[in-house]
Design a protein that fits this description.
2 copies of one chain form a homodimer. A 7-stranded parallel sheet of chain A has the order 3-2-1-6-4-7-5. By secondary structure, chain A is α/β, with parallel strands linked by helices. The termini of chain A are far apart. In chain A, helix 1 links the parallel strand 1 and strand 2. Chain A contains 10 helices and 7 strands.
Chain lengths: 264, 264
């Protein structure tokens, strides 16, 4: 957790205790530990910190009078927000492109701050003047403004997943096409292995007998049905266990069909 | 917005009106429009819909009595949650690897549902039996459980940014996620698209009748068999055409079994 510990989340003048709590919860979800709150509204800040179930990192949060103080030790200060209403003076980057920059900064021993503005109007031009760059979450232009707790969750997800894949839980390397094994459950995969071709052929044989016994189609169709069934079973790719179970069902059906005289 | 319109967000038995509102807001932020709410607690659902500033998509949301109904028209049903407490019966995928699958499904004309469980305990084993796969947000194992509104925001951010980069605002296509010719729909793939959930339910119903008519297993096993069959069909993912053909075979078998008296 060495690298995550060098990222600080900074909330500037947050108002709503629910949002402060939500931001802290998202930090805990994604393994971040360092929270600094700048000039919070005191009664709401006390309420958020003392809430039942507040994560430990919220009780350990630093308080700072100014954003300048809060980010004084950081080498890369990233403001968040939308540029809808004004022309920013910083470089603007999509959140999609942030991870490599943060990784680079941490790799060379830097410290990173991720700065979130107050609920209503976001970071001011003055606030942004402490930021090296402004990162935007790509949102629908008709509804660009995100809830604070949700914006924090999205940014931390992106960083946790794409800067620290080794430190986040369920991540597997992102191949453009995830091959099947990437989403097979790891335990008990024996059961998930595909049935061998011979097993599929045995199953096809019993299904074909059941088709015949049920008078499913004229005998002129038999060769075509057999071909289609072979293709179908390969495409569905049942596991060994699936194959045994389907075989069991069709054997039972076949046995019952053979007991009764044909009436069609 | 053609593709985004073929994704439905499904909230199963949500309780807290603030979370319902937050989920809807995240949908609006990322350009999603279709919300279905399953069996909501009525007073809170009314409260959420009538809240000041509720997005239009919340007022237009569909209500559904069961998850089966809510996803009946969908060809890829994705459950969300954490596997911390149990061993899932579905394929499990990190959210990081979901985008290519969703894109592939939409490219071949399918419809996708993203299903979120209730706040306290998430989706049940029964709920998950309607899902083709379970997607996990990679979180810190010490605090894996996310707030509902934040989980929705993170999932929709990931899909909006990485499935529809052209439709989301500030994103530039990143090399890792550049369009891949392999995603292009093949000719005649219409027939290859997965059968919708409702079609699988109809097929399962007829297979179950055939099991019963053939005396396949004792009636005490009926609920377990039904559950296993639901999982099996989602895992095999037959196409619409496959489904029609298997249905035809089982209808024929059932008809023949019903003609003859039971002799076992």
């Amino acid at each position: 957790m060495l690298n995550l510990a060098r990222i600080t989340v900074v909330l500037v003048r947050p108002r709503n205790p629910i949002n402060i709590g939500a931001a802290a919860r998202a930090m805990a979800n994604f393994g971040f530990r360092n929270l600094t709150v700048v000039a919070p509204y005191a009664p709401h800040w006390r309420e958020a910190r003392s809430a039942v179930g507040a994560p430990e990192l919220l009780r350990n949060a630093k308080e700072s009078a100014t954003l300048a103080d809060a980010v004084a030790g950081c080498t890369l200060v990233v403001g968040t927000g939308t540029i809808a209403r004004r022309k920013p003076e910083q470089k603007v980057l999509s959140l999609l492109n942030l991870a490599p920059l943060v990784k680079q900064e941490l790799d060379r021993g830097g410290r990173v701050a991720l700065v979130f503005g107050p609920e209503k109007h976001g970071l001011t031009r003055e606030d942004l003047s402490w930021c090296n760059l402004l990162v935007e979450i790509p949102t629908d232009p008709r509804q660009p403004s995100m809830n604070l707790g949700q914006a924090v969750a999205v940014c931390l997800y992106e960083l946790a997943a794409r800067v620290f894949p080794a430190e986040s839980a369920a991540s597997a390397p992102t191949a453009a096409h995830a091959p099947d094994p990437a989403y097979a459950p790891e335990k008990g995969t024996e059961r998930m292995s595909a049935a061998p071709s011979g097993g599929l052929d045995r199953l096809a044989g019993v299904i074909e007998e059941a088709m015949f016994a049920a008078g499913y189609s004229p005998s002129s169709m038999q060769a075509a049905n057999r071909h289609d069934l072979r293709l179908l079973l390969r495409r569905l790719a049942p596991t060994e266990r699936d194959t045994r179970r389907i075989l069991g069902l069709f054997r039972r059906i076949l046995w019952r069909l053979m007991q009764s005289p044909k009436r069609n």
